[in-house]
Structure formats: C-alpha cells, structure tokens
Amino acid sequence: MNFRSQKIFLLLIILIPVCAYSQTNRKIGLYTGTGTERLSDKLDLGFDYRYRVNFFQFEYSHTIHSFGRTNLEGHFTPQFNTTRYKNLDGSDYYKTSYETGLNIAIALRQEIIPRNFSLYIMLGTGPHYIFGAPDRQVSGLIFSDNLFIGAQVRVWDRLHLDIRPGFRHISNAETRHPNLGINSFTLSFGFFLEID
Fold it and tell me: Which of 89, 126, 128, 138 has its CA 20 to 30 A from that of 170?
C-alpha cells in the first residue's frame, strides 16, 4: 500500500465512525457545477488534453466539533458526473462519458454572521469510477482529491445557498498506467437544508 492509499484509508477510518455518531447541525444538499482545466488564455493548467466535467451531487454534512463560531464538519458526497474529453494531438471532436463516485471531506467553517453567512475551506478525497479519459489517464477506478473554498448564505429559514470554487485532481494512486492524472478548476453551487 503506497502513501496515497494509506492516507485515504486513514481518512476513511477516522471520519466514518466519528461522523456516524455525530448528531449536531446536520444538513443535506444538492449541487451542480462544472470543471475544466482552462478558464482563459491566461488561466490554463497547460496540459495536453481537454476534460470538461459537469457535477450532479448529493451531500450530507454535519458538525463534528464546534470551537465557538468555528466548526469542524464531515461531508459525504455521492455523485454522478457527465464528461466530455479529447486529446490535443489533432483530435477534432470530443468524446462523451461519465464518472460516478463518493467523496469524503472535512471542512473548517467560520461563521461570519451566525446562522446566516459563513466561509469555509474543505479538503476531501474518495473513490470514483471513470468510464472514459484522455490518453494520459487510464479509465476505471480512480481517486478524486478536492480542495474547495466556499461561502454559504441562509436564504430562507433552514435553507442555505452554497457556492464552492475549487481544484480537483483525479488519478488512480499508481495502480495502473498511464496515470498522469486529470486536473480541473471547479465551480459548484447548490442548496443545503438543515435537518436538525
């Protein structure tokens, strides 16, 4: 088991029991969004592929521990995503495919206006299965590593709007080759409903 696999296994072992017994500030959410490796001519990751992903995600979150107005949260995000991709070796058309998986994340949230507006940073990983990819990455079982910085605002009673820009890397932890990974800037938004 390599270092990356060990860190994923350790994250799962720690988060699943802790989150299973936490009963405070629980929320469920629905998200949609997009990811791409190129935002403009000046903001391009510079790789030899194009990989467009559209996210369709369900999310369950809850507070693990509170430190005054700062909360440590656990997030579970099953998802089904559609993709379009091509290599930049003269290929004129995009292939379409999809990916499915589960992300497990921890977030550190700072309440700016209690119950009404907060900012957070989230780090997560999880197993996914991609059914098609550019030549640099073999299809099949991969891991999706994510870093998000987000904002959440209450729009009505227990309903919150969440906006989440971030960065995503998918690869397979060196279990098969090629494994050069696919990197994307991401932007997602959705609604969370408090269920406590």
Answer: 89
What is the spatial distance between Cα 20 and Cα 168, in angstroms, rounded to a whole number?
26
Dihedral of alpha carbons 154, 157, 158, 161, sign = negative
Instruction: Reduce the DSSP state of residue 172 to 3 states and report it.
Output: coil
36-72 exposure pattern, b = at least 16 Cβ within 10 A, e = fewer: bbeeeeeeeeebebbbbbebbbebbbbbbeeeeeebe
Structure tokens at 86: 């091509």
Compute the distance between CA of residue 168 and CA of residue 188 in angstroms, rounded to an integer: 12
61-117 pLDDT, tens digit each: 999 999 999 999 999 999 999 999 998 887 778 999 999 999 999 999 999 999 899
Can you tell me the distance from the alpha carbon of 8 to that of 99, in angstroms, rounded to the nearest whole number?
A: 19
Rounded Cα–Cα distance for residues 164 and 166 (Å): 6
> Domains (ranges, CATH) in the chain?
3-194 (2.40.160.20)
- For residue 141, what are the β-bridge partners? 129
CA distance 75 to 169: 18
Reduced 3-state DSSP string for 64-98: EEEECCEEEEEEEEEEEEEEEEEECCCCCCCEEEE
